[in-house]
Amino acid sequence: MKTYDFSQQYINKIEQEVALSTNNVQVHYGKSHAIFDASLSFPRFQITSLIGASGSGKSTYLRCLNRMNDKIAQVDGEIIYRNTDINSKKINVYEVRRHIGMVFQRPNPFAKSIKENIQFALKNNGINDKNELQKRLETSLKDAALWDEVKDDLDKSALALSGGQQQRLCIARSIAMHPDILLLDEPASALDPISTSKIEETLKLLSKNYTIIIVTHNMQQASRISDYTAFFHMGHVIEYNKTKNIFTAPEIKATEDYISGDFG
Amino acid sequence: MDDIQTRLQKSSRATRQDYFGKVICYSCIGLIILLVACILYFIASKGLATFTQNGVKFWNFLTQSDWKPGDVDKYGNPQVGALPMIVTSFSVTILAALLATPFAIGAAIFMTEIANKKGAKFLQPVIELLVGIPSVVYGFIGLSLIVPFIRGIFGGTGFGILSGTLVLFVMVLPTITSLSVDSLKSVPMHYRQASLALGATRWQTIYKVILKAAAPGLLTAVIFGMARAFGEALAVQMVIGNAVLMPKNLISPASTLTSKLTTEIGNTVMGTLPNNALWSLALVLLFMSLLFNLIVRFIGRRGNIKNER
């Protein structure tokens, strides 16, 4: 395996409005150091993809952003959202996750109806007005491009949907809460190409209203949908730039090798 | 080539081993099935003899409350009414289950969702130890602690359904707890993640997602606990008072199906009505345990349909 100099780093400054940023985020699983000094800023209403080989820490990093690593790993450093460090102990993590939603690799709807899946989080937050619930149900399913397929089966079990539909349901479930930021952890890696392209279209449309951060190990996917791309390698952020720069003219050798498939 | 052809058609060491293994498995299974069938036949034939040979009406057996199998009433009918025992058996079972379920599920939630690994590791053997204590020990503790305690508070003898319930509560608690733990552990991890990622609190996650998904398993745990309570003989016999009377309240001496069996079976002669009547009680017990089993299976199947992906 080739070794790379991790001090070589290229991080592009973001000029637009920033939705979320991290300063020197470190992650430890017990004694092993999983993320080293990750400092990135994510532009508002853009899609940023995190790429890298398996075990490069991109998913671990993503999970820090809405505190899903609590009790699993030790996360140090600052995560700034609306001028607040949400990585501090005093922060209400439930509130964080209401503003920063997450969709996982495997579609994971609850064993409830489609309607209950969408309204689960809403009801938890005390939204009980029937009209409001119905409105949110409809808009979130429409935004996730699922409405036309399920509008007659809203009371059917979510587990009866196909994998791609389930994943779009999970996206709809997240955006029903009207979060600011949507984190997606390889949302299409368990899906077939057609479902994948539907998810990608959905994300493209969503990026008008949401800041999207997506982990993917499919480089074509990253280049197709994202505006910015960060390349992770062995827990280090190697390069962060506009997607078209990363894929056409990478600044760092490691990035170039990874993108051209000449790696490891 | 010919060599391979002949070998293809010949049995070898491997095929003989295969055959041998199959024979062993089938004969063991056959033996077990035969045993179960024999037990069923024996109890049924003995238990039904009360109705076929001794002429007791089945309906009277279930609904009358005088249990004097040796005597006849003024019309010459034998007095074999099992209702008091059936009622008492159900009372202690249901009360013990009602009392134990909240504690058991609470303990199970604590062990799977709230306690850290060390706490769960400490509690597991504690619960298992409770299962392993012989029932006579529970009965003895009940007799020397619970009965005087109840006597002191409510008066009377202290023997009765309440004492039986309290003893059974302690006995079924570990059963329900450990089965509930299994059922909670089998809820997929991603349900918890999905719920937390949507901003649900830990309590909302436990209450609305995990308990719902585990509900069939929890119900099964409770029914297994009830089956254990229903079948428990010795400990109950020591604290219930053993009087075949319709229970008037929770502290009057009573008798369950099982306690009647253990106290009386040595005092009767095979083939007589008093003996046959006891077998009828055993038949009721057998039927009930069969029913509990069927319920568990039914719930299990429903749960599978609901949770399949």
UniProtKB/TrEMBL annotation, chain A:
Residues 20-259 form the ABC transporter domain. The keyword Transport applies. InterPro entries: AAA+_ATPase (IPR003593), ABC_transporter-like_ATP-bd (IPR003439), ABC_transporter-like_CS (IPR017871), P-loop_NTPase (IPR027417), PstB-like (IPR005670). This is Phosphate ABC transporter ATP-binding protein PstB. It comes from the Bacteria. Keywords: ATP-binding, Cell membrane, Membrane, Nucleotide-binding, Phosphate transport, Translocase, Transport. The keyword Lipid biosynthesis does not apply. SMART domains: AAA (SM00382). Transmembrane segments: none annotated. It comes from Companilactobacillus baiquanensis. GO terms for molecular function: ATP binding.
UniProtKB/TrEMBL annotation, chain B:
It is found in: Cell membrane. SUPFAM superfamilies: MetI-like. Its main location: membrane. The chain crosses the membrane at residues 20-44, 82-110, 122-147, 153-176, 209-230, 277-299. Gene3D superfamilies: MetI-like (1.10.3720.10). PROSITE patterns: ABC_TM1. Pfam families: BPD_transp_1 (PF00528). Keywords: Cell membrane, Membrane, Phosphate transport, Transmembrane, Transmembrane helix, Transport. Coiled coil: none annotated. Belongs to the binding-protein-dependent transport system permease family. CysTW subfamily. NCBIfam families: phosphate_pstC. This is Phosphate transport system permease protein. It comes from Companilactobacillus baiquanensis.
